[in-house]
Write a sequence for this structure.
């Protein structure tokens, strides 16, 4: 890592040229510097199907009994 700090510009030039640089902490690989690739945005904007004034006509779905949101979130996050 100390070599990376000292020669960062040279390593970034290598990556800019299409190369890959693996960063080690002693003998353990900890990071990989790769050229940046622009990825297509996965955000899709859908046109409104109704005017905002018509939204009050939409009926919501209500649960049959109260929902403990904290409990549900903690259950979902157990696997993380």
């Amino acid at each position: 890592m100390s070599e990376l700090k000292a020669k960062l510009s040279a390593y970034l030039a290598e990556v800019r040229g299409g190369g890959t640089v693996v960063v080690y902490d002693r003998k353990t690989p900890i990071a990989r510097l790769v050229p940046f690739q622009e990825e297509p945005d996965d955000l899709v904007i859908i046109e409104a199907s109704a005017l905002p004034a018509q939204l009050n006509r939409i009926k919501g779905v209500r649960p049959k009994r109260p929902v403990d949101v904290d409990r549900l979130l903690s259950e979902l996050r157990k696997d993380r």
Summary: The first helix runs from residue 2 to 6.
